[in-house]
Write a structure and sequence with these properties.
Elements (H helix, E strand, L loop, with lengths): L7 H57 L1 H13 L7 H14 L3 E7 L3 E2 L5 E11 L1 H12 L5 E11 L5 E12 L4
Antiparallel strand pairs: 1-3, 2-3, 3-5, 4-5
Length: about 180
């Protein structure tokens, strides 16, 4: 008996079924790829939203603190006078040195530097001799004082009998507003 080939209809049906299966698998694959892309996009959007929310919270805090910021600005602007006032700075530093039993053998001003930000820098160097505690109190008062003085460098050496005193050399900048 001779073997019969499958009728062309059956072959066509099988070919169409295999083709439909391949198309289905391909569609599922592309849908899963698209799904992952969408999940990534959703995660990115959630991150952007949380970042924006955090920024908004910071801005709300800043808005609520605006009066305190304005007051601090006014305080700082009062600390930077219109005139250089070297004599006032000398008096101020000498008074503080006296208040803390420090000897101020040297206070020297350098030239003026226009920083381009609306202020004139007045570089100065000063040398103080005294105890550690007194020097620390002086520096604390200088930081919180009535005149804006930025300390750039402090060099500390021991001096006196058995190193009982300290000598500090401070390089700093005082500021004033330029004449208009």
């Amino acid at each position: 008996m001779a073997r019969k080939f499958a009728p062309p209809r059956k072959m066509l049906f099988i070919a169409l079924a295999v083709l439909a299966l391949l198309v289905g698998i391909t569609a599922i694959y592309f849908q899963s790829v698209k799904w992952r892309e969408l999940e990534t996009a959703v995660a990115d959007e959630k991150l952007a939203i949380s970042t924006a929310q955090a920024r908004l919270n910071q801005l709300i805090i800043h808005r609520n603190n605006a009066p305190a910021y304005r007051q601090r600005l006014e305080d700082v602007q009062r600390m930077i006078p219109a005139a250089p006032g070297e004599e006032e700075i000398l008096r101020y530093i000498n008074q503080m040195a006296g208040d803390y039993d420090l000897r101020a053998p040297e206070i020297r001003f350098e030239g003026r530097i226009d920083d381009g930000a609306g202020y004139i820098n007045m570089p100065l160097t000063l040398t103080l001799v005294g105890s550690y505690t007194d020097i620390m109190m002086f520096l604390s008062r200088l930081r919180d004082g009535e005149r804006a003085i930025r300390v750039d460098n402090i060099n500390i050496t021991r001096t006196g009998a058995e190193g009982s005193e300290l000598r500090i050399a401070i390089t700093a900048n005082a500021f004033h507003k330029p004449a208009e």
